[in-house]
Specification:
single chain; 292 residues; 3-stranded parallel sheet
Length: 292
């Protein structure tokens, strides 16, 4: 009998429905409508699809969606000026600058120009530092979605042995911080870690975010472990994750598919972060369960 599928698409649909209810209640009680601004620089096809999907999801839950499309040759100064205007706009509660940016623009400078309270991606240095030190922060959307699914599947994570494969600022590092905050015992590994298969075989939780197709082998997985596959890799066979899904499913207790696992949760958590940011700026109670 194979592992149970962790259906991120269904989980995200439930989360979006809950957010829509919270947005309606916020409007009715306080006359406040959350607003999310997304900035797209250039015409990268994948980025354009992401921005379109984010805008659609934002409107579907009753939020205001503001899209700003700039040419690829826009200057860094002009992009920073737009971010500054959005920082000062009271109807904008969340700001997302779609990555990657063109090579002539310093991504870190642009990200860190976003007001931390509107940083719904959770990428600014201030929010990363707050997360690392256990303070209230805006949390990156993909790790937040992974944490929600793990809590839903496993209950309390305290004492569980967790392995995060990947050390990016977007997924690996914040994922480790979130698991630590839930009292899991966390190891952070990467593609150059020695003895990685043995580390995997000890782990009750494996989060794979290394960006290499089918990198994690089925015989690396501890029987009954929960496997969260963050990878989305385009191959001749189609989209595949960082885990050899068919082999791992025969061993694991629960596993996310690719596609249909982590991906849908990322956009749902972006909406959750926008709702949280709106509540905080207006001094209102935060909805339960949308932040760690």
């Amino acid at each position: 009998m194979g592992a149970e599928l962790i259906d991120g698409k269904a989980f995200a649909a439930r989360l979006r429905a809950r957010i829509a209810g919270e947005v309606a209640a916020l409007k009715a009680a306080h006359g406040v409508t959350p607003g999310l601004a997304v900035v797209l620089v250039g015409e990268d096809p994948a980025s354009a699809v992401y921005v379109r999907n984010k805008g659609k999801a934002t409107r579907e839950v009753g939020m205001e969606s503001f899209e700003h499309r700039l040419p690829a040759e826009v200057s860094q100064a002009d992009l920073l000026a737009l971010v500054a205007r959005l920082n000062g706009d009271p109807v904008v509660n969340g700001i997302l600058v779609q990555l990657p940016l063109p090579a002539h623009i310093d991504e870190a400078a642009v990200i860190n120009a976003i007001a931390p309270e509107k940083d719904v991606d959770g990428f600014t240095v201030l929010n990363a530092g707050r997360l690392a030190t256990g303070q209230r922060a805006m949390v990156p959307c993909t790790p937040l979605g992974c944490l929600m699914m793990l809590r839903d599947r496993l209950g309390p994570l305290g004492g569980k042995d967790a392995l995060v494969i990947g050390r990016s600022n977007i997924v690996g590092k914040p994922m480790a911080q979130l698991l630590l905050a839930d009292s899991a015992t966390v190891t952070v590994a990467h593609s150059r870690t020695q003895g990685l298969p043995d580390l995997c075989r000890r782990a009750d939780i494996v989060v794979a975010a290394v960006g290499r197709p089918r990198f994690v082998q089925g015989d690396w997985i501890k029987p009954g472990a929960a496997v969260i596959d963050v990878g989305i890799n385009r191959t001749e066979a189609g989209l595949v994750g960082d885990v050899d899904f068919d082999a791992a499913r025969r061993v694991a207790g629960a596993i996310t598919p690719v596609p249909g696992g982590v991906g849908p949760m990322t956009i749902a958590c972006l909406l959750a972060n926008t709702l949280t940011a709106t509540a905080r700026v207006h001094g209102l109670p935060e909805p339960d369960g949308l932040t760690p």
